[in-house]
Amino acid sequence: MTIKLAIASDHAGFPLKEYIKKNFAAQQVEWLDLGTYSEESVDYPDFGKKIADAVANDDAPMGVAICGSGIGISIACNRNPKIRAAMCTDSTMARLTRLHNDANILCLGQRITGTEVALDILKVFLETKFEGGRHEGRVAKLGSC
Q1: Among 75, 71, 54, 72, CA closest to 63
Q2: What gap in Å lies between CA 136 and CA 55, rounded to an integer?
Q3: What is the pLDDT of residues 64-86, one digit of tens each?
Q4: What percent of the chain has pLDDT over 90?
Q5: Nearest Cα to Cα of residue 51 among 68, 27, 69, 67
Q6: pTM over 0.90
Q7: Cα(61)–Cα(27) distance, rounded to whole angstroms?
Q8: Contact 15, 110 (CB under 8 A)
Q9: Sign of the torsion angle spanned by Cα atoms 109, 62, 73, 9
Q10: Which residues are tagged catalytic?
Q11: How far is CA 100 from CA 15, 70, 79, 95, in A?
């Protein structure tokens, strides 16, 4: 089964973005690459907005956003009320944010997370389904904060 995923980064996250696109083999993925396309300096909020808008508009059901630390782009993504972006540094965080928060954008930090760990985090993020139940009301509140 093929899944469509949006992916975006700033200049600091560009190498990890390209690595993930080339090496993520856990599932068939059709990448919606929203940039940036080089290591030339750009502003992470611009790319956080692009990916958040794409996921919010159902251009892709989920996304991967990358900057130097993962923090700035996660803040930018979360400005959109339809987005639940989570910066994860390990697979446990990825599993829990899907189970409990129904996160729809995974944020990674090029300077924080190694390439193979990033692939593992993405694999777990995509394989984990939202648990629902007691978490549904809490997640619903996130869109109105």
Answers
A1: 54
A2: 19
A3: 999 999 999 999 999 999 999 99
A4: 85
A5: 67
A6: yes
A7: 15
A8: yes
A9: positive
A10: 100
A11: 30, 20, 20, 9
The C-alpha atoms of residue 112 and residue 62 are separated, in whole angstroms, by 22
User: Which strands, in side-by-side order, build the sheet including 85-87?
Assistant: 28-33, 2-9, 62-67, 105-109, 85-87
Cα separation, 128 vs 114, in Å, equals 21
Each domain of the chain, given as residue ranges in start order, spans 2-142
Backbone angles phi, psi at 94, to 5 degrees: -65, -45
Q: What is the pLDDT of residues 123-144, one digit of tens each?
A: 999 999 999 888 988 888 887 7
- Write out the CATH class of domain 2-142: alpha beta
d(CA 35, CA 137): 34
